[in-house]
User: Fold these one by one.
Assistant:
Number 1:
Amino acid sequence: MEWSRRKRWLLTILASVIAFTATFASSLPSGGSAQIKADFHASEFSNTLVISVFVLGYAVGPLFWAPLSEVFGRRPVFIGTFSAYTLLIIPCALAPNIGTLIAVRFLGGTFAACSLTNSGGSIGDLWIPLERNRPFATFGITPALGPLIAPVVSGFLAQHQGFRVTFWLLFAVSGAIFLVFYFCLPETYHPVLLKRKAERLRRETGDPRYWARHEREDFGLKAIVGKVLARPLLMLFTEPIVFLLATYMAVTFGTIYVFFTLYPSVFVEIWHFSQGVSTLPFLGLGLGSIAGCLTTGLYDAGYERAVAANGGKPVPEERLRGLFVGGPVLASGLFMFGAGAMFRGLFGFWLPLVAPDIINKLGVENTSYLLGSIILLLCPIPFVFFKYGMRIRGQSRFAPHQ
């Protein structure tokens, strides 16, 4: 990519801001959950679904947006999905009942998922593997902060203006960001750029010998389903590294989203905080996320040494060193939370819905200990892959072999 380092950093930051918007939207209703429940006379289950179905859309959307971006490029898919997501905020603000809000939120999450998956893809397009650690650390901070800042904003705003105002604010912010990236974010996907270059050279020279591999690939429906949609699922369930690390990340991701249903009830109903103040503990999670992302820079030097010692070839296992510390710290934090506070759920979509039943049977502290124990059981995964990952990768039929 023949772009200056400054331009690539600017595009990295822009892609990170786009991802921030999507995650900000995911937890926004948390701060106004009391108003949503009161205005719609909604049950606790339905109220929780308002957040959970948006996260469920994160699982559905990439099945479509990832393969489409490999056919048409990042930019057109970005524009289409982000505009749809932005427009779907309007019916959220005008929703006449809880059912409408839940349905529209699911659609919004499905379209917003592109902002997460394709932003990471765009950043990967901009940097060679050896340079990606710091850009991806930057990218990791912004989506992590989005869902933690949103409840604080919506908590204070909904307390005085109602929950609908929070969606109008989101619409204004998302619309402004859409305009910025519409005019500033170029295409970054290399095969599409080469295809455009070949088309331009054919027009300018009249020579049909200019062509790009992307033009001759089969992008029919059967090929997309077989190569692009089926392959991730096949890798997930046949490759131990993919499956176990995906499980690790799913539990971690879900643990964060548990707090969006936990905090409003715990700190208002038990500690008697005001609605706005009850969301301030999210800032602690935000500071922790920033600290965790910043530590990735500490491993850059070690990774570069490992690559140099490996003849310039990437050493994926070296990327796992951060988990050596992060996993145990997360587990210990959950144990401490269980010792001094209360807990009401587990994973991002399903478990927050069944959390009240779990607590009724296990109690607050034991539920927290349960989740901490699960995290603790997952902690050995990066250590095992660090030692045996090369051998396991060598046996994979999906690994590139030279």
Number 2:
Amino acid sequence: MANFTSLPTNLIPDEANPEWMSKADNAWQLVAATLVGMQSVPGLIILYGGAVKKKWAVNSAFMALYAFACVLVCWVCWGYELSFGEKLVPIWGKVDVALSQHVLLEKAFAGKFPNATMVYFQFVFAAITLVLIAGAVLGRMNFYAWMLFVPLWLTFSYTIGAFTIWCPDGWLAKAGLMDYSGGYVIHLSSGVAGFTAAYWVGPRLTKDRERFPPNNILLMLAGAGLLWMGWTGFNGGDPYAANIDASLAVINTHVCAATSLLTWLVLDIIFFGKASVIGAVQGMITGLVCITPAAGLVHCWAAIIMGICSGSIPWFTMMVVHKKSELLQKVDDTMAVFHTHAVAGTLGGLLTGCFANPKLCKLFYGKQFVGLFYGFEMGQAHTGFKQLGLQIVGVLFIVVVNIITTSLICILINFIVPLRMTEEDMEIGDEAAHGEEAYAIWGQGDRNENSRFSTYNDVEIGSSKNKGHLEM
């Protein structure tokens, strides 16, 4: 053992601070994980609760809260080892638990901190993936079906993507696929799985699809703000160290998000004549998603270009392509998760294959990957095309896995409990699903110029001369 007597007492290794552990890295990793956790609880709880009709506020928020809690228990019991444990097959690990002191206090497979920190850090990523999927099925999915969906999808879909792309023994990880912080594993997966689940669950009531105003835009903005700031830990935590690559990932994240928001905002103003707050939030989200697979692998100028792309291409698919596609029209994706996560995640993965800087890749991966544009500059175009091709293979793999597993899970659940609430319960919403309501006085979020709404279930009442009689 090295001689540490000359060090300050707080830096001398002991039983609680082994030589292999960096206190700074461990502290940052725990903070980063907590920031990511706060994106879900309370971030997306608040965002969903404010972005839906008043009658769905409790149900939408509760779906997110339940997913977060359920994923944690499943994660330590079997999910972590399936995702990052010993290899069973090239796309999946062996079943095991991450509960014992022997496991949790040992050095993690990466970074200078214990497994307990790594388990916690990876859990919050798994949890937010399920919370994002919930966004696609808000306003009609049976809560009991959702209770079954969460552990099944985590076990048979998320763990496959995580092991294949992030675990050092995974097939695509070994092949050299670049996914810095979850453009594929989290966002593409949640977008495709959410869209697939929305297909099997079916659409909301016709009147809800036609008119689904947010019940509280300010609350939605508060959730969006937590989501944005939480992304500091989302991308800044993935170098597994408090180093310069983490700093680059953080600044790139915020630059891309801001650029994307502004791009979406300008397009809304040009084509619709209004500066939409909801549109700005969607532009922010697509920017955050797009930069995620590239955050610490590209220069800041590339983050600006990616922000312009993420603020325009998903805008085009949502505002133009969606309205012309029969399939997109048929599937009722409540929070547009397909556009904001699947499209933006795919875009980010492909742009990573174009803009990835070899030196930055070496900082993060320990080996040099060459993006397409740098391949041209270095006279290694074939290497750049190979990398871009591998990024495309990653997209196809995630899409196929999620369509198949999500479909099978939904079909299985439907044999146990109905995937969808009854028409009568969907008319009522939270009161039918949980026996609780979010507010006692507000309407569905519609403009209420005459104040003619009752305090229960948004029933419109007659004018003063007809008080006591309901207008049917």
Number 3:
Amino acid sequence: MHISYLKIPTNPMAAARYAQALRPLFGRTWARWFSIPTSQQKVVKVAVLGTPNAGKSVLVNRMVDTKISAESPKRNTTRREILGILTEGDTQLILTDTPGIVAEEDRNIYESELVRSPWEAITNIDAALVVIDAAKRLRVAELQMLAKLKGYQKEKGRKFPPLYLCLNKIDLVKPNDKLFDIVEFVTSKADFEFTHYTCAPTGDGVFELLVDLLSEAKPKPWPYPADARTDLTLGERVAQVLREKIFERYYDEVPYQIGIEIEEALQLSSGPVELKITLNARSESQKRVLLGKQNSRRKHLEITSGKALFNVFGRPVNVQIHIKTSAEARGARS
């Protein structure tokens, strides 16, 4: 196949549309087929902000077209900053998925790192994407977040990065004209460059959002390879999937701090990936919860995790889970 005649558009919006047209041929990592000179490369760094359960992680996963962050209705499933990376044409988009911003009166409930992390992420970025759950009434946490962003805008002026508003979960808003009331209210609280309407699970509105974010790119060599999707290691991506499935199945029965260790990973030239994983429960009672009656919950977790990990490995995955208490794990190591 001869592709030497293809010309890469230098305009970010044209490059994004060009990539969209080529995806059926090459997939989303089509840029790796071409040699983009370092002098022509561009980078845009975007911090993704929002309150818990606004759908930030689902949106980031959709934008980079793979699972990197755990998705769960459990508050603050995202416990640390996670980078999502997408290279389109000559531009590399780096998204920082941040922990949910909580109301000031709730901050003593959460670790100080979770409270600081979202605001630390807005340093050294080209834009900030503010994600709001359009299906719910604005709460104190959203109002405080908008007030703080407005304060930063007044304090730093043009030095503060542009804000993009993303009303997410629009499929749950009936009638649709309610969205305009939300936009009018939110944009009165802080200054936004653009407003986008998305449904992250279906991808509605995501392409248009990507095009606008790519337009903020600055000339700079790519910090990551063209086919990179995240800064997480493969083991960390596996752990993210396990955390998601644990929270889906157990929700409030299991704490955030459950330990996940990959004991063994075998991937032969053909056939499924074999994973042996240990979950470290904090107590015997939590261990019993994780196991379930006659190991039913553990078996269910093995099956659902294996199915979800297909998207990470690109082939079938067999998961074997062993559950220990923290005391048992320490005893085994001593």
Number 4:
Amino acid sequence: MSFLPLTASRPDKHRNRSAWNASWEKDLETWLHPPQPSVRGPLLYTKDNAPGWVPMVMEIVRSEILVLQNDICERAVMKANLTEDWVALEPARRKDIVLEALYNTSCIGPDMEQYRQWCPDMTVEALGNKGEPYIKLLEFLVRSNSDSRQEITLFPHPLVDKVFGLEALQVPMHAPKSRLERCYFVTLVIWRIYLAFYGLTEVSRFKKLPEECRKAIRSSIAVNKEERHRARKNYIQSSGDTRYCWGCGIMQSLLPGDKKLLACAECKKMGVSEVKYCSRECQKDDWKNGKPKPHKLTCGKPPQAAAEGGRQGKLTCNDKTIPSADPSFKRSLALLHQIQRSTATGADYVLITKGNDDIGLTIPGKAQKDRFLEMKQQAMKNGDVTAVKGILEMLRSYMPFIASVSSGFTLLDLKEQLEREYGVKL
């Protein structure tokens, strides 16, 4: 469904990628219109209000996203120094990689390029100028990867979420079709950046949709002119600035003088930088009365986990087994994945295999368990190499058991996993 007032004719992306991308990024600037009071109308198809063919198409797309997201998490956590190497790249090289990823993603089928209209954050400047934005997307995906690995991770964006409605985040399996289109495009860009960064290529993994499904996707534009006008009006009046108060919605640019929005301290500890407030009073009100949930129920959780009712509540800093990281210690993607898997399964430590059959270990005996958790907490706090070595030595004694349930996982695999998680050399 074409929702933004898109440029009718773009430069040929195969002949001039830069001009083609510049045309897209100019269109995406439409998302930055100043906010107006929200006016909602019949904008998006969901499984509840769509014609019969839409749920079928949505389920096909959802299954493709799920496979891809699981593959990204598996690859990313197994790659040592990914974060450091990506951040260390020259900005010009990062931008080249991002542009290549955007181009390759847009070449997947006749409809994929149109999904970019829901992705104002998928630009060369936003993802390539500095290294952190891409790493944050990876970290968010790793942390949000569902416990059963059967649920997709949606990617929040303040402006887009206002258009889709908060209900789009609450139940990912019932997300509006356009929300899935955004999720699909963002997931593919993350994957294509990874491939381009490591000089890898991939023959398209995606099954060609049945002709009736492809026609159904393209026919989603078939709404009458009045509905299109209403949808576009809703968008213009719902757009906002990315820098806004989580409570009242005021833009930072409208605050008096040099006043700035301040981030929620607990959310910031967990790497959730979106939650900001214009005043102490606004923060207190959102803590008790925030919509759709009071912030006290979602504080310290990734935006998606918060919207889903705290599925990942164990990842908050309030969990006694997960201390806050020291300011000088940056948790790796592999360590974030370890935290997610161990808290989801209740295991003391999870061996991450190359497939999806991870092995959860529970340390027997109170004295041994307490000693192990003490070393684990110290290592998670500041990457203490002595604590990491202690973890390795304790887990070494369980290798006979590990070998009995997974003959492919060796002591060398364990050593390399700990090195990826804590960035140390053992």
